[in-house]
Structure formats: structure tokens, C-alpha cells
Design a protein that fits this description.
It is a single chain. The protein is an all-alpha fold. 76% of the residues lie in helices and 0% in strands. The protein has one domain. The radius of gyration is 16 Å and the shape is globular. The chain starts with a helix and ends with a helix.
Length: 201
């Protein structure tokens, strides 16, 4: 059973949330977007939010700064979150302006806000669940896209809600977080997207 929960934690790792939101947008949007625009967003976002963080993780692990990709302690989380904030800023200022997409700009603004909030809580010695932060962000983005484009993706939202519950269960089973840490992470993720919804709906 432990192996199953570990697999769930890897599959829905927060590392994949930015690229997941980007792919979701292009799958859902009724707007026409050329292959050039799609690749102009997807490829650099994948490099900046998946490949580069993995490289930094390997460097930090070799230096002994972090012990696991799940960052079990408060101290280990600071450097990856600093790096994440910088990379999200690069997406906002370098990637999206080249192929501007209104909805993605605000999705990444919400992610940056949530990551910043998690970082502030670290200084208060509170270890927010980044897994639930990411799941909450993506779930609210899905709801926002459904309302914005007036499309019915209720089934996808329902499935993702169940998956969010599965991720929360896995993190509890693995003793990675307390219930409060999971709840705060989910609330930060959903609220950061919810607050920004008014700017693009």
C-alpha cells in the first residue's frame, strides 16, 4: 500500500502543476491557437518548470542541502521555493509575453502568489503541503476555464477533485503532513487562483 501512495505522490508532484495547467488550457480552450503559439508556450514552460528544477534538485542533493524530492523538513524547502519563485517570474516576464495568453498569465500569477505565501509560512516555521497547494491551484483553474469559456468539463473537475482527495490521503498515509498542513496548502492554492479570477473571467 505504501508503494501505491508513493507513486501517487510522484505522479501528482507539484513540479508538474505549471505544465499541467498549460496543457489543460490548450486542451480546453475553444480559441484557435497555432502550433507555433502552443509550442512557444509549452516547450519553454516545460524546460523552466520541470527540467531546470530537476537539475537544481540534483545539485542541491549532491551538496547535501536536501535529502528527498519531497522536501521533508522546513529547512530543506526554502531553497527550492526560492528557485520556484524565480522560475515562475521568468515564465511571466520572458515566456508568456512572447506568445501572450491572458488566461495562462493569470494562472502563473496565481501560482507565484501561492508559492510566495508558502515561503512566508516557512519563515513562521509552518510546513505547507505543496502537493495540495498545486492540486488546489489546478482545480480552481479548471473551474475558472469552465466558467470563462462556458464549456462543460464537470466530469474532469469531478475526477480531479477525487484525485485531490487521493493525494491528500497519500500524504497523510506517508506521514508527510498533518491535516492542518494539507488544508492550509489546499486553501492557499485555491484562494490564490480564486482572488485572481476577477481579472480574467
Amino acid at each position: 500500500m505504501r508503494h501505491f501512495h508513493n507513486i501517487v505522490s510522484y505522479i501528482f508532484h507539484p513540479l508538474f502543476i505549471p505544465i499541467g495547467g498549460t496543457l489543460l488550457y490548450f486542451l480546453v480552450t475553444p480559441k484557435y491557437s497555432s502550433l507555433e503559439i502552443q509550442s512557444g508556450n509549452i516547450l519553454p514552460i516545460f524546460i523552466l518548470t520541470v527540467i531546470i528544477p530537476i537539475i537544481f534538485f540534483l545539485i542541491l542533493k549532491n551538496l547535501g542541502v536536501i535529502s528527498s524530492i519531497f522536501l521533508p523538513t522546513v529547512k530543506e524547502r526554502k531553497y527550492p521555493l526560492y528557485i520556484s519563485c524565480i522560475l515562475l517570474l521568468m515564465v511571466l516576464y520572458k515566456v508568456i509575453p512572447n506568445n501572450y495568453i491572458h488566461e495562462l498569465f493569470y494562472f502563473f500569477t496565481g501560482l507565484l502568489t501561492a508559492t510566495g505565501a508558502a515561503l512566508i509560512l516557512l519563515f513562521l516555521k509552518f510546513k505547507t503541503s505543496i502537493h495540495l497547494l498545486g492540486m488546489g491551484s489546478l482545480l480552481m483553474f479548471m473551474i475558472g476555464l469552465s466558467i470563462h469559456f462556458e464549456i462543460n468539463i464537470t466530469l474532469a473537475i469531478s475526477v480531479f477533485t477525487l484525485l485531490t482527495g487521493l493525494v491528500a490521503t497519500s500524504r497523510l498515509y506517508l506521514n508527510a503532513h498533518s491535516k492542518n498542513e494539507l488544508l492550509i496548502g489546499f486553501l492557499i492554492g485555491t484562494c490564490s487562483q480564486l482572488i485572481i479570477l476577477k481579472y480574467w473571467l
